[in-house]
Amino acid sequence: MEITDLSPGGFACACYLVCEGTDAVLIDCSATPEAVKAALDKQGARLAAILCTHGHFDHILTADAMRDAFGVPLFLHEADAEMPEDNEKNAFSVFFGNSSFHARPAERLFRDGEILRFGALAFTVMHTPGHSKGSSVFLLDNVAFTGDTLFVGGWGRTDLHGGDAFMLRRSLQSLSDLPKSIRIYPGHGGSSTLKNALDLIL
Length: 202
Description:
This protein is α/β, with parallel strands linked by helices. It has one domain (about 1-200): Ribonuclease Z/Hydroxyacylglutathione hydrolase-like (Metallo-beta-lactamase, Chain A, 4-Layer Sandwich), CATH 3.60.15. It is built from 5 helices and 12 strands. The chain has helices spanning about 35-45, 65-70, 90-95, 165-175, 195-200, and strands spanning about 1-5, 15-20, 25, 45-50, 75, 110, 115-120, 120-125, 135-140, 145, 185, 190-195. It has a 6-stranded mixed sheet with strand order 1-2-3-4-5-6. The protein has a 6-stranded mixed sheet with strand order 7-8-9-10-11-12. Helix 2 (about 65-70) links the parallel strand 4 and strand 5. The protein is globular and about 40 Å long.
């Protein structure tokens, strides 16, 4: 498995290309289609899908451009289904007032515990509400793509639409039950082991 970090994308948001042989999946979409195409060409892989950890605007920033460029579906947790089209719920209006940002709805909604398979890649969905209602972590082998649920030494804010500090604390406790050797790839900032990330906050 090869993970290409295309960070930072727009608004310093992470964007990861995960490849196994010729199969590739994008985790969140803040990078440009051109950057993704260059990474795909380097790996000799073909993009199968975009998995979004949650529906805030910075994580779906180039969702429409990416889907237009590669003809692939966008996957999002069902609890965040309304966020791409809603300027307030995806938090764009919180930061930019009357300016608008809208993306097309996700083509595929997932739930906790689902296994999302794309050729040689199989991601297990772990629903981790708190930063948003549908915030999710994608588990693959000894790796976790944690979005804004867990950073190295921190976590996502809970004062935006769908945020809940109590639920986020429960989600962090759930993550602490995973093997501590897992390597996390957060939605912002660098990667680390799960143990190191949790030791800094719990």
